[in-house]
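Researcher: We plan to redesign the surface later, but first we want a full-length starting point. Tokens attached.
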């Protein structure tokens, strides 16, 4: 049994996703790009849905109505806020909206051709929800998960504090570990 899995009962270490990435980290750029691109497309879709079709019809090959257009504008604006904020906020926002888009795709797939299809979804909208959901999740999780994260990655360091302690540079003349000799 590995020693890093033995913990006193009642103590559970959790990785908090909102405090491990420095504000100026290079991963923030990826989170911002993802939020910005998806937000821009959703804003364009929502505005065209309101202005171009008068609230009912087809926009960019997908079904739309006033409710879907307003929802798209709101989500697009939130993604733009995430782009401006950057960092962990943008990453977490991308992941949350990615999951919501995937769920929306599955729910609306079941509601196609029923009276409960209040957002006027068509199969193109469902496929769009799946694609946008997956893209947002990829942008949000980039650099956070994976089996080959570099050891200087803040998320790897948060998940492996024992290994970080062992990799810490040793000052000359100081004996921190028993395997070090003078």
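Model: Full-length starting sequence:
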């Amino acid at each position: 049994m590995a020693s890093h899995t033995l913990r006193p009962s009642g103590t559970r270490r959790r990785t908090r996703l909102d405090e491990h990435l420095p504000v100026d980290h290079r991963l923030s750029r990826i989170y911002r790009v993802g939020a910005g691109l998806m937000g821009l497309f959703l804003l364009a879709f929502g505005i065209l849905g309101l202005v171009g079709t008068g609230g009912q019809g087809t926009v960019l090959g997908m079904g739309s109505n006033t409710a879907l257009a307003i929802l798209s504008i709101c989500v697009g604006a939130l993604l733009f806020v995430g782009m401006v904020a950057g960092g962990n906020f943008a990453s977490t926002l991308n992941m949350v909206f990615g999951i919501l888009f995937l769920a929306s795709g599955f729910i609306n797939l079941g509601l196609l051709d029923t009276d409960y299809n209040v957002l006027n979804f068509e199969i193109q909208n469902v496929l769009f929800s799946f694609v946008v959901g997956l893209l947002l999740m990829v942008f949000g999780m980039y650099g956070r998960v994976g089996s080959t994260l570099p050891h200087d990655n803040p998320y790897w360091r948060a998940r492996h504090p024992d290994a970080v302690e062992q990799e810490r540079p040793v000052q000359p003349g100081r004996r921190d570990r028993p395997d070090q000799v003078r």
